[in-house]
Task: inverse folding
């Protein structure tokens, strides 16, 4: 992966950060993105670049703003001499019954979890096509394949991004570019930690019951998926042996969607 360049949206935390660490370790230049404390992001950039001898840039582009998304992709392309790998990972969640679901939450989830990927892909693709090589990985979810109550916007966007994945795979199939969706089950990140109290409220149960009877109940392994497992799967998908894997949904969910 030496000399390849990657953009990972939402990489200041959780799954995106794990993917950024794996890609940098493999020798990729990295464009970090997401919100967070500026000093912590500065030290993350420094750590990734010094430890791995790669360039690590940061864009504070808000994934709800198409112009900022385009600028982030163009900046990466100019600074790195191209964009080889794009990981659409930024995502948010809101848990509420549909009649109580705030319209502004619906709009934000559609923008960040789905429309942002449309904007990154359309801006990054010309750079990949130029080199006849590219890897697009959309971090979807088990919720791209199955639904849960109280997550109308999230489930809609995750099903949507799987459709987008398939279309992009077909349109790029002869260009040396692949586009796949990774569909994780529950991973212990701030996104999941933040929804435990909302789930408790929506279901009228305790937070402990949410973890045991809702979250881990979904996964036959009764374990959270590990961050490193998703980083390692991403590395496989960008490698040469994955050249024929395109347009697919790869589950990493402890057996959730086998049920
Ligand atoms: P997280 O909350 O730890 O990280 C989310 C990242 O997205 C952060 O870096 C945050 O700053 C960034 N972000 C949020 N809004 C943004 C915006 N408007 N513009 C730019 N960046 C923004 O969450 P996570 O659990 O690591 O989730 C990452 C992805 O994985 C999401 O797409 C999520 O749906 C998906 N996913 C998570 C789980 C899980 O159990 N954690 C399971 C399946 C899928």
Result:
């Amino acid at each position: 992966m030496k000399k390849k360049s990657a953009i990972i949206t939402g990489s200041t935390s959780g799954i995106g950060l794990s993917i950024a660490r794996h890609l940098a370790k493999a020798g990729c230049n990295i464009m970090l993105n997401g919100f967070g404390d500026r000093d912590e992001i500065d030290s993350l950039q420094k750590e990734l670049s010094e430890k791995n001898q790669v360039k690590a840039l940061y864009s504070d582009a808000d994934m709800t703003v198409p112009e900022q998304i385009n600028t982030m992709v163009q900046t990466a392309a100019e600074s790195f001499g191209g964009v080889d790998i794009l990981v659409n990972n930024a995502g948010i969640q809101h848990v509420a019954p549909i009649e109580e679901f705030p319209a502004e939450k619906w709009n934000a989830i559609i923008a960040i979890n789905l429309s942002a990927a449309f904007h990154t892909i359309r801006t990054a693709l010309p750079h990949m096509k130029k080199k006849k090589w590219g890897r697009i990985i959309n971090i979807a979810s088990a919720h791209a394949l199955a639904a849960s109550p109280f997550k109308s916007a999230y489930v809609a966007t995750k099903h949507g991004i799987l459709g987008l994945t398939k279309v992009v795979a077909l349109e790029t199939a002869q260009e040396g570019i692949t586009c796949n969706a990774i569909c994780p089950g529950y991973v212990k990140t701030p996104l999941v930690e933040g929804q435990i109290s909302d789930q408790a409220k929506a279901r009228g149960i305790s937070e402990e019951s949410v973890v045991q009877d809702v979250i881990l109940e979904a996964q036959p392994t009764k374990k959270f998926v590990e961050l490193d497992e998703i980083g390692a799967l991403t590395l496989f998908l960008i490698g040469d042996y994955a050249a024929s894997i395109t347009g697919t949904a790869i589950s990493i969910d402890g057996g959730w969607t086998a049920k």
Remarks:
- Strands lie at 5-8, 29-33, 56-59, 85-88, 134-139, 177-184, 249-252.
- The chain has eight helices and seven strands.
- The mean pLDDT is 96.
